[in-house]
Amino acid sequence: MADEQQLAALSDEIYKLICPYNLEIMIEPKTLPCGHTLDNDSIMKLAEEGNGIITCPVCRATFDADKVTLEVNAITKRIIEGIKGLNQKRIVICDRCNKRVAKIACQDCGMLYCQTCFDLVHQGRLKEHRWNYLDVAVQKELPYCAVPGHEEYRLDLYCPGTNEFICLMCQATTHRDMEVYPVIKAAHFAKDDLQEWIADTSKRKRKLKSVVQAIDKVIESLEQRSEDELRTLDELLNALIDKLEAQAKVISDKIIERKILEVDKLCGVRKEIISTVANMTDDVARAERAINLSDAIELILMDREIVKQPPPLTIHLPQYTVPWVGPEQDLGQMFSVDFLPAQDPVWLDPVFQDIVALPAKAELMEAPKIEGDGITQLGTLVHSDFKWACDTAEKGQSVTVSTNNMMATTNCNDCYSQSSVFGDVAMESGVWYWKAKLLNLVGSKQVCFGVARKPFDHNNPKPYKMMWGWSSNGCALPSYETRNAEAKMHSGEEVWIKFDAERGRIEAYWPATGMSGNIDIGTKAQGKQMFPVFVLGRRGNTVEIEPVQHWTIDE
After folding, report:
1. Could you say which DSSP state residue 255 is in?
2. Cα–Cα distances in angstroms (integers) from residue 271 to residues 63, 320, 321, 356, in the given order
3. How far apart are CA 232 and CA 465, in angstroms?
4. Pick from 410, 478, 418: nearest CA to 439
5. Are 246 and 332 in contact (CB under 8 A)?
6. At what angle are helices 74-86 and 2-10 packed, to 10 degrees?
7. pLDDT tens digit string along 55-87?
8. Which of 52, 283, 341, 409 is deepest in the core (most CB within 10 A)?
């Protein structure tokens, strides 16, 4: 019975001996550089799954299996061996004397000691070692009763009513009217309860392991998805920066060109004014000299030339324009510039009104706006070959195409593989419009529609993961997570689709509900050949296509 007491005393510490990866008691415990201890078999599996990289299942830290040396956790291993010994000898022996029962574990020494050996070894500086009691009171035989007068009798009986171990004298006195069992029989009952508990716990462990594995898969998927989307964001940002720099360069060149024209025009007027001022200076000096010398002839000539017939003093100033740069709402053209007539030119000051002539109103013409950089506006047609059909060479084996190639159906049995069909048109530029009518929708498998790139695996059991668009139950693709009830379709209903190749954007409109939606594909579609695609899903599902030059939504 003392052995069972040992197991009960250790039960609170058992969780420290379980590997966090396989959720079993460790056999060969080793400690990772991050401080967490795992079983050696689990570490080997993690290294194999990570191609030589070990990822700690507790803190997610990573280590190169070839560069780290993992030491055995001696204390943990000794405790595990001690617990295993309870099923055999049920005794943990002191590592130093190999005689007495070990009661203390020293973390710094990595050894188990009895009280005597521990006191002998840990003197001086060794007193600072980290240690803890094993809390195991190991006895080979049942203890004696502590009740006065009963010291000669062992505690070989058990009373369930008081949950006490008692001796024969206790049964005859204080426990006379109570139900009492021998310790062996009580242990048999406890064994049955424990076996039932072990079976139930094993089932729960298996379920919890499945939950842990599912969480690991979700974490891995989330990390991978996040990395992919971060790369996509970086690509989009770089593409946008390149586009903005190109737009800014065009506008910068135009501003500099206009500045040079306006400055040249104003400098010409300035040069003319300076020349007039220089002539005036010369005339003033000539007049002052004639007056000082009392030169009669010169005085008469200058009076006739300058005073009586003065040269025109009016300066014709030109109208000039100033640039105004501002943002646009359209991502295709982020910037624009206007050159507008100046509203407050300096020569409007009243001081100058007697010598300057402002430009006539006819000259106050607004300079033309700089147009966009050729980006196609959404909803305009930039190609003429808008008629296309189903591609009989690019389809799954279960798909049948009509004679006019405008209708496709599938005969596959409740699956998505081999049920896809492409349109025979490469949408690398421009804006494309088509309508699709879904016929004979049956079963649980949905019809998916949208765009995709080549090559395309028609045998893939989840082909909707390789396309952008929607399913007939209202889910957006490829995530297949966001579902909108207004986008759910029934047999005979239409969906209108539009794809803008320059923007990398697909739009859809559901006439039955008035619902509309869009998906920005971004650089994954810009400048690449995209194709219309339909995944029909289940036997009998049929789609009828109608490429159109344009479609509009009635308000």
Report:
1. H
2. 77, 17, 20, 15
3. 16
4. 410
5. no
6. 150
7. 998 888 898 888 888 888 888 888 777 655 544
8. 409
Q: pTM score, two decimals?
A: 0.35
Q: How many CB atoms lie within 10 A of CB 9?
A: 14
CB atoms within 10 A of CB 283: 15
Burial 518-542 (b: 16+ CB within 10 A, else e): ebebbbebbeeebbbbbbbbbbbbb
pLDDT tens, 165-224? 998 788 878 888 888 888 777 877 888 888 888 889 888 888 888 888 888 888 888 899
Report the distance separating Cα 314 and Cα 357, nearest Å.
6
Q: Residue 224: phi, psi to the nearest 5?
A: -65, -45
Reported as a single tens digit per residue, the pLDDT across 441-477 is 876 678 999 999 888 888 888 888 888 898 888 888 8
* Contact (CB, 8 A) for 542 and 536: yes
- For the chain, the residue count is 555
**How many Å apart are CA 292 and CA 290, to the nearest integer?**
6
Q: Which residues contact 519 (CB under 8 A, 6 or more apart)?
A: 450, 468, 469, 476, 477, 505, 506
- Give the type of residue at 314: T
Could you identify the residue written with the tokens 């000898």?
Answer: 89
